[in-house]
Amino acid sequence: MDFLLIGLCLNWLLRKPPGLILCTLGIFSKMLPAVNSGCPQLCRCEGRLLYCESLNLTEMPRNLSGMMGLSLRYNSLSELHDGQFTGLMQLTWLYLDHNHICSVEGNAFQKLRRVKELTLSSNKITQLPNNTFRPMPNLRSVDLSYNNLQSLEPDLFHGLRKLTTLHMRSNAIKFVPVRIFQDCRSLKFLDIGYNQLKSLARNSFAGLFKLTELHLEHNDLVKVNLAHFPRLISLHSLCLRRNKVTIVVNTLDWIWQLEKLDLSGNEIEYIEPHVFESVPHLKSLQLDSNRLTYIDSRILDSWKSLTSISLSANTWDCGRNVCALASWLSSFKGRYDSNLLCATPEYAQGEDVLDAVYAFHLCEDTVDPTSVNTLSPMINNSDQMFGYGSAAATAYAPEADEEPTTYAITVTLPGEGAENAVQIHKVVTGTMALIFSFLIVVLVLYVSWKCFPASIRQLRQCFVTQRRKQKQKQTMHQMAAMSAQEYYVDYKPNHIEGALVIINEYGSCSCHQQPARECEV
Ligand SMILES: *[C@@H]1O[C@H](CO)[C@@H](O)[C@H](O)[C@H]1NC(C)=O
Ligand SMILES: *[C@@H]1O[C@H](CO)[C@@H](O)[C@H](O)[C@H]1NC(C)=O
Ligand SMILES: *[C@@H]1O[C@H](CO)[C@@H](O)[C@H](O)[C@H]1NC(C)=O
Ligand SMILES: *[C@@H]1O[C@H](CO)[C@@H](O)[C@H](O)[C@H]1NC(C)=O
């Protein structure tokens, strides 16, 4: 600044007219604070900014009119009286953090219309009266963190239409009154972390249309219901880590923009299967350090946009329930923490989840190892893996034993009842089966020739797609086992990836990249 001024004045001395005006203005503005009542003892003045910090002050310095910025950080102020700051009408920022302030009277901030930034953090404030901030309608940022606030008056933030940032971290707040932020239509950042919130009301956050980041970490919330954040249409990041959440639900049917959700360090045992359907843009999800034993396949299906996830330090059950998760993980392209360990059953305890899946052949169908096994999970990944629902191929394997010549796979949609499937199965006579198997062989040969001459693995993938299409048409009964087996004789999955291709049906080859017509027959 000073160099610029010297430059301007030199400019003037060299008789360049614009320099004259700027030089005079510059010198005048430098002299202004001196004119203005002088700098209080021990304080530092920079133009119209006053810094009286770390002075053990118990009272405010006097005669501060005209100041634009005032810092009283690290002093021993204990109270803010009504009208304390009158005469500071020009003030645009006020730092009062690291004092011993325990009470703030209702009209303490009178006449501070221009203040944009107010810091009251690290004091001992237990309560702020209604409308404390009302005299400061231009506030952009308020910091109340590290105090002892125990409750918030319902009208505390009324009139703060320009507020963009509000810090209340590390207080003792127990609940957030309904509509307390109603006027805060510009608020983008809200931190109520490290408090004692036990629950949230449905309208606690009403009105925060521009909020993008909400911190509720380190509270005592026991349940997360996404319906408690309605109309937070701009919210991108929600942090709920280190609460006491046991279940996550959503009782409201709506879609929001959330991209980052941190639920780590809770006690989550249950997540409602449809919760994530309301956050289709979710990119980052933290679920580590909870009590999850499995993830419902419907949840896995809704994790479509994720680019990073953390799942470690849960109590994973490495029974058959783990298959859906294992196959999802192995086809997941984003980042995830590698430290997923089995907690049960005993023989798998402490093993890495994916390692256990391979080591103990957890996701291979053990009912009839010689025939349709490796294929069956592909028929319907989700329901079958979990062992509930009507997983047809598994359920009817015993019947396949009764008719060993047919190896029929009854493919039913999961919604259909078991009786229906049995009937369909009985209709399949040996003759029909023979015809079908012949057709399938021809079909597979045709598709492989037409679609992927390249590798046997791709061929299999096409085959799977083919089968799925058939299933959709409900023309069903296939004699896949025999014919497929022939192709699979040569196919040796290489190590981990190969095995996964088998269980999860998401191999690297995908038929749909080809013109669809070529894969249809
Ligand atoms: C601050 O002032 C109080 C009395 O007002 C005194 O007891 C205390 O020792 C002072 N502290 C420092 C660091 O000067
Ligand atoms: C402060 O202002 C009062 C009147 O408001 C005046 O009497 C006093 O001299 C001023 N002190 C300084 C240091 O300017
Ligand atoms: C603050 O305002 C609300 C409603 O506007 C009222 O219910 C409450 O009693 C007020 N608090 C105090 C301390 O006056
Ligand atoms: C598996 O079954 C579920 C119903 O539980 C269905 O929504 C899904 O589309 C099926 N998957 C495939 C690959 O057919």
Topology:
Layout: H1 2-13, H2 17-35, E1 44-46, E2 49-51, E3 69-71, E4 79-80, E5 93-95, E6 103-104, E7 117-119, E8 141-143, E9 165-167, E10 189-191, E11 213-215, E12 223-225, E13 237-239, E14 247-249, E15 260-262, E16 270-271, E17 284-286, H3 297-302, E18 308-310, E19 316-317, H4 322-331, E20 335-336, E21 342-344, H5 353-359, H6 376-379, H7 381-386, H8 392-395, H9 397-402, H10 418-427, H11 430-450, H12 456-472, H13 480-488, H14 495-504, H15 516-519
Parallel strand pairs: 2-3, 3-5, 4-6, 5-7, 7-8, 8-9, 9-10, 10-11, 11-13, 12-14, 13-15, 14-16, 15-17, 17-18, 18-20, 19-21
Antiparallel strand pairs: 1-2
Helix pairs in contact: 1-2, 4-14
Bound molecules: 2-acetamido-2-deoxy-beta-D-glucopyranose (4 copies).
How would you describe the overall organization of this protein?
- The longest helix is centred in the C-terminal third of the chain and has 21 residues, at 430-450.
- It is built from 15 helices and 21 strands.
- β1 (44-46) and β2 (49-51) form a beta hairpin.
- The model is unreliable at 32-36, 367-422 and 475-521 (pLDDT under 50).
- It is an alpha/beta fold and 521 residues long.
- The site of one 2-acetamido-2-deoxy-beta-D-glucopyranose has 3 residues, from loops.
